[in-house]
Amino acid sequence: MPAHRTSDEERAASIAHLLALEAAGTPITPARLKTVAAAHGRSPKTVQCWLQRARDNDGRYQRKRRDATEVTQRMEDELIRWCGNISSAHEALTDDGILTLSYSAFYRAVMRTYPRSFIDGLRGGEKARRRHDLHGSNRDRGRRNDAWEADHKEADVWVNVNGTARKPWLTLFVNCSNDGICGWAVTPHTPNSQAIIVALHHAVHRGGPHGPFGGVPTLIRVDRGTDFLSDAVHQAMGILGIDRVDLPPRRPDLKPYVESLNNAFKNMLFRGMPGYTECSSPDTTAKSKPPPLEDLLTFERFTAEVHQFVHRWNHQHRIRNLGKRTPLEVWKADQTIIHDPPPAALSRFLPFVRRTFTITGTGIQWAGRHYLEPWMRNLGGYRVRLRHLPGYFNTVEVYDASSDEYYGTARWINAASTHVMRRVRETNAADAARLRKALKKRSKIAAERYAATAEPAPPQLLTTLTTEQAHQHMHDTRDTDPLATPRPADENLPEPTGSWTNTRPPQPHTDTKENLPAPTPSWITHLTSPTNEPEDSP
């Protein structure tokens, strides 16, 4: 018998030939049936059933169909309520008397009615459904610097950053025509617009560790991260004349080259480093709990490893989709003209500080920081403007406020030392731990706890405080609650004296006009006096 069963068209052709022989008077012998059955991978008895079904259907072979069950709206609602759990939906429909089918028949009906992506989406959400999406082949690479792609990549490895285990982030710019890494930046924490501008500045410069790759691209494709859409990044790309293409969310297939590079970093670099988070381990918490600090790479060593990998990728790694050539070989084979940015543009794509400053004898003062350089010697009293990387204040670029002439770079001279900043961080961490402990204690006191039960019964509240503790807690809460503060109307007011003036004589409280006293002339004089107006309107 063949390893696989034949199709319906092949079966129909064989059955039509046997029926034609039978119509011509040639008997269908058991040997002929056995030969046909062996060709289709079935038994002679099955071929006889095919022949009988064709005779009953005017000589046309058709596969025997099971009774098709239509999925009703109630069945679909129950399937959605159970988040795609077909077994639970079948059990609920059976208990309600709505469904009489077996589980296997109901399962076939559901799988015949809905695609697999819909069922997986009910079970795992949109992320599970996207696994079934089909994507075309990679887009046209174009020529060098026609298009770049940019993205962030969290390193799958723990790194020792000043005594703390962290997972650094990479910001990458990739040339689509040759998969060359044009620029990159490493940050010990979640990157922001500063990392993007540093990587972009690194990318447009040619030379250095990434080789001859660089120049000004025509466009850069990015996802819709808030840092890529920031005003600082938009200004930096706009000054260089680069078009930013904002891709739709959750579409990694639209930037395939940088996504492939992210996987290359993981498989070719991070897997061999100590502290790799995806290693199989008997400890189920190994991925979330970092190893001891002495077993991890320092941040400087990690950055050096990334530096070496970028050089090896661009100059030595041969890529199959590039015809087993390196990115450098593809770059050199492309004779497209490269547009290098002018030096003035490179120093001007940093965002401006909104206000202007005056150069004094102590330099430039900004938010308590002092910036001083020798070239400020003869510029006392000049009004200047500052540019700087977002979130980075160690250096600023100084420009004339009126002519926008570039003066130079100024450094922050009164910055706190590394030792002092470490002490500040330790103090902040101690305060945060103390607050967490206090909040945890408060939530434990205020939390309601109920007794466990195995019988249907109202919830029984468990007492966790003594009477004295409960009264003390209510007293402490009342002292700090602004709503519990007594208002002036609730306080004990002093008794009235003879010096107090009554604008009206006391009147008995009543809802009927018959019990009101008759007005006197003194009342009329008082009510019509322009200097003594009544408190309430009549």
Explain what this protein looks like in three dimensions.
This protein has 538 residues and is an alpha+beta fold. Helices cover 37% and strands 13% of the residues. It contains 17 helices and 16 strands. The strands form 4 sheets. It has a 6-stranded antiparallel sheet, with no helix packed on it. β2 and β3 form a beta hairpin. The protein is flat. The C terminus is likely disordered.
Number of helices: 17
What's the overall average pLDDT, rounded?
82
Spatial extent as radius of gyration: 41 Å
Helix content: 25-40%
> What ranges have pLDDT less than 50 throughout 5 or more consecutive residues?
524-538
Keyword list:
about 550 residues; alpha+beta; 6-stranded antiparallel beta sheet; 5-stranded mixed beta sheet; 17 helices; about 15% strand; flat; disordered C terminus
Q: TL;DR of this structure?
A:
Helix content is 37%, strand content 13%. It is of the alpha+beta class. Helix 1 (8-23) crosses helix 3 (44-55) and helix 5 (86-95) packs across helix 6.
Helix and strand arrangement:
Layout: H1 8-23, H2 30-40, H3 44-55, H4 73-81, H5 86-95, H6 103-113, H7 116-124, H8 126-130, E1 147-154, E2 159-161, E3 164-166, E4 169-175, E5 180-187, H9 193-204, E6 219-222, H10 231-239, E7 243-246, H11 256-268, E8 297-298, H12 299-315, H13 327-333, H14 343-348, E9 357-358, E10 364-366, E11 369-372, E12 383-387, E13 395-400, E14 406-412, H15 418-446, E15 449-450, E16 461-462, H16 467-480, H17 521-528
Parallel strand pairs: 1-6, 2-8, 6-7
Antiparallel strand pairs: 1-4, 2-3, 4-5, 9-12, 10-11, 11-14, 12-13, 13-14, 15-16
Helix pairs in contact: 1-3, 2-3, 4-5, 5-6
